[in-house]
Amino acid sequence: MHLKPSFKFVDNLGGNLGIILTQSLGLTGILQFVVRQYAEMENAMTSVERVLEYGALEQEKEDESITPPPNWPEHGEIVFDSISLRYSREVLILNNINLLIKPREKIGIVGRTGAGKSSIINALFRLSEFSGSIAIDGIDTKTVPLSELRSKISIIPQQPTIFSGSVRNNLDPFREYSDDILWKTLENVELKDPVNDLPSGLNSIVTEGGANFSIGQRQLVCLARAMLRKNKILVLDEATANVDPKTDLLIQRNVRENFSDCTVLTIAHKLDTVMDSDKILVIDDGKVVEFDHPHVLLQNSDGAFCGMVDQMDKLSAEYLRNVAQMNYANNMTESSRL
């Protein structure tokens, strides 16, 4: 007995192939979705691991602390006494730094990359352990609670820190100032019109990282924040490195006018930013190489600071020398009046 072959499958070959193809494509889409979800889960778990890692960090050690006077620091005098600092077991980043920064002095800090400029600021904020002592208005910073110390020193970093939230919360996160003071401060840094043009003014939302502001405007927000705090010590850590010349001049002018009674420490690669300072601190290999008025330092043709100026083009070098000389003459005139 012979079985007759079935031609039913052959007759529906086109339809069956279509079903197989569509199901295969659907299965491929499901596999792609699974892979994508797995990758997103991996990214999310990385964030969880980082949060757990940060949560497990040891709390910064506090020496026996005292409560400084409410108006501390009143003058802004800073004394570095035999400061040495190293990271882990590396060589000394700061090597026996001794400095006296008088109240209201404007100090420019210069030096090659890795010389130790930012490490001085780390020591000032007690971000790293160091030997020796730093006294602000006669009080050793190691005896002051960290939160108190850091709240009394304003800093404008190279990369501005902008929070997600309203403009008001970025300027005054603790709601300590009235709207009139906030608007006045924004006017001083020439941000009143840009903020006023936003849909809700001070209550307008700033996106993550301040993406709806330009880099210069973000830096001006940090400047306004520092102006509101009215601390006696201000640190500028390459604050004008990434801004346009107009914003650079605006920041420098505001620092001169609104922080005239404050001690200002300015770390800069651009010498024109610090040429009108009261003193220039030249750091090299973690040591103080020179520390005096820029005009005085430029009289030493073999000095490190003079060498930095001479490396510039002739026109720029001459301009910087004229600025230093003019500032020095003005300082001498004011000293004679006093």
From TrEMBL:
Record keywords: ATP-binding, Membrane, Nucleotide-binding, Transmembrane, Transmembrane helix, Transport
Top-level taxon of origin: Eukaryota
InterPro entries to which the protein is assigned, alphabetical: AAA+_ATPase (IPR003593), ABC1_TM_sf (IPR036640), ABC_transporter-like_ATP-bd (IPR003439), ABC_transporter_C-like (IPR050173), P-loop_NTPase (IPR027417)
Gene3D superfamilies: ABC transporter type 1, transmembrane domain (1.20.1560.10), P-loop containing nucleotide triphosphate hydrolases (3.40.50.300)
Location relative to the cell: Membrane
Residue ranges occupied by any ABC transporter domain in the UniProt entry: 78-310
Keyword Lyase assigned: no
Protein name in the entry: ABC transporter domain-containing protein
GO (cellular component) term, any one: membrane
Membrane topology: Multi-pass membrane protein
One annotated GO molecular function: ATPase-coupled transmembrane transporter activity
